[in-house]
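Appendix B, Record 12. Input sequence as logged:
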Amino acid sequence: MNSIPLTQPSPMDAVPLQARQLTKTYEARTVLDRIDLDVAQGTVLGLIGRNGAGKSTLLRCLLGLIEPGAGQAFVFGEAALKMSDAGKQRLGYVPQQPDAFAWMPVCEMLDFVGRFYPRWDSAWVDRILSRWQLRRDAVMSTLSPGERQRVALVRALASQPDLLVLDEPAAALDPSARRDLLREVIDRAAESGTTIVFSTHIVSDLERVASHIAFLEQGRLLLHAPIDDLKERIVRIVVPATIAAQIRLPIAGELSRRKLGDGGLSIVLERVADAWPEIAHSADVQRTVLGLEDLFIEVVE
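Logged structural output:
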């Protein structure tokens, strides 16, 4: 699949992260389907979707770590696949399973990496290693998965990045440790106005720290909105069987639908152009505001 010719944003008005029609296919299976995304400065965006939805692939395409089949990604206005060294210095990235520098002790690895970043905060590194009780002399490969994730986060945050991208940053931790870790990440990043994008399949993580949410399902970006706006923008309607038979095609703003046992339909709608479709106002149709967890279940079910 050939890349679509696109216009690169001006560096003067560049946002931290952009995607334009990003598409990726593996062995005839579409993993990303024409993704468009803009992440504004200072946003904490939670990218949510079940396992296999394409979250990791999207993050790697956004950062230029893999090449899309079509479309382009931009990091601070630069094409992600051709990012300059200066652009890379503004970026922090933690993969889902960090395994870099496995042969090095923690302290030597952090000292080595720190030499490449002009804003590296050694004093903060010392404090956070002590707070998280991470052994400075431990070889990386001997650490537990949760400890390796913590060290990878230390490495990413110590550079004081303008953009921080985290792929399932606390998947190896128990709920209490995950909550504390995410709060530390958000507090640290908030000090410098860092833009954060993190993927997760855990709804509670989003509710605690994200300002915006993006739903990814089967490679499609179904929804991208501020969390505070969801109750105003998203609704579930239950359509009785007598009406459902007449609704064969998707209606305006439809995010998902499922058949009910009585022949009716449950449809999740996003408000389009500040208006709900006519069917949502029908006296025979039940309309319900969804919480974030219910919305996630409806979208991925």
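Residues 231-300 form a domain with the Alpha-Beta Plaits fold (CATH 3.30.70).
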